[in-house]
Design a protein that fits this description.
Length: 321
């Protein structure tokens, strides 16, 4: 009974914006193949997306798009905002899938993104105050690693990074700690793939962690392999407010998966890949920005109170010794 109530809530939690997709290649001021997997952050006067843009060679760069309401009238930079330095080993084949947080203590934005280099995909850090100039801080951890985001504050003096290394072919979500954003340690598995579930093959963090009264709300993508290909869907979890390496709750079911045509048809079919979130405080709405079928950007919205109610209905997670 409880499960039915929860699954009804899960099914109707997020509503797709009626004018989805909000951004696609034909909107771009210069020739590109695809736009998808954007980081998102709220500025005082606008929503900023840092979109992954795939050029006509198949390499990706990052471009800023801004909109007052976060839905329409996007102002897109007329050239790549952050282009790979293709001459370097780290960035040889492009920059992908960014996440952004505001580091209040330092007074700048931190962007974690995938550099597609010779050693394999690696998570790199860049900092910026204005999204015009960027200081590249280099790779954070060795390859192969993706789907990473920092938390906006320290925990007992240390920064925390969620990321997704591939180890022995397994793709679980990890968390690591650092005193200075440079030296990382205390690596541990945060969440594992769940055999036979919708997230049985691979999982990875979706957008930046969101602080709510109950703890840190996180979203993650889960992959299932089928005879027809892979399906990318989104689930949720709740982490402890002061010890974010402790998972308190995790959704059994997914809360957003490919259903609309623009999610089912594209460069890669059946992909919903969330990489950015904003909270509209006036409306108390959560906006999730995502790549749809690896070639467009779409947004889904939910009432924040319902999301909180839902996550507290999800099963508690037992802890490993
Ligand atoms: C993942 C990442 C994403 C991509 C997704 C679906 O492995 O590479 O950039 O959106 O696959 O193709």
């Amino acid at each position: 009974m409880e499960k039915n109530v929860r699954q009804h809530l899960a099914r109707d939690l997020f509503k797709r914006y009626e004018d989805n997709p909000i951004l696609q290649a034909k909107d771009w001021p210069y020739p590109v193949n695809a736009v998808f997997n954007p980081a998102a952050i709220k500025l005082p006067d606008a929503t900023l997306l840092l979109a992954r843009v795939e050029d006509l060679r198949g390499f990706s760069h990052l471009t800023v798009c801004k909109s007052k309401d976060g839905l329409s009238n996007w102002q897109i930079d007329d050239r790549p905002t952050m282009e790979a330095d293709h001459g370097t080993r780290e960035e040889r084949w492009g920059l992908e899938d960014p996440r952004i947080i505001w580091l209040d203590e330092q007074g700048h934005f931190a962007i974690t993104y995938v550099s597609y280099g010779e050693g394999g995909p690696v998570v790199s850090l860049a900092i910026t105050k204005n999204f015009h100039t960027f200081a590249r801080m280099g790779p954070m951890l060795p390859p192969e690693d993706k789907d990473a985001c920092l938390f906006p504050r320290r925990f007992n003096g240390r920064f925390a990074l969620i990321h997704r290394p591939i180890v022995r072919g397994e793709a679980h979500i990890w968390i690591s700690m650092s005193p200075d954003l440079k030296h990382w340690g205390d690596h541990r598995i945060l969440m594992r793939t769940r055999h036979a579930f919708w997230d049985g093959q691979r999982i990875g963090l979706a957008c930046q962690p969101i602080e709510i009264p109950e703890g840190w709300l996180i979203f993650y993508h889960g992959v299932r392999s089928t005879t027809a290909g892979q399906i990318y869907r989104i689930g949720a979890a709740l982490l402890d407010a002061e010890q974010p390496w402790r998972v308190l709750r995790r959704s059994e079911e997914w809360i957003l998966g490919p259903r609309a045509d623009y999610e089912r048809i594209g460069d890669v079919a059946d992909v919903v890949f969330v990489t950015g979130a904003t909270v509209n405080d006036e409306k108390n709405m959560l906006y999730l920005y995502y790549g749809a079928a690896d070639d467009k950007i779409a947004v889904a919205m939910a009432d924040m109170n319902k999301v909180r109610e839902y996550i507290m209905m999800c099963p508690e997670v037992k802890h490993e010794a």
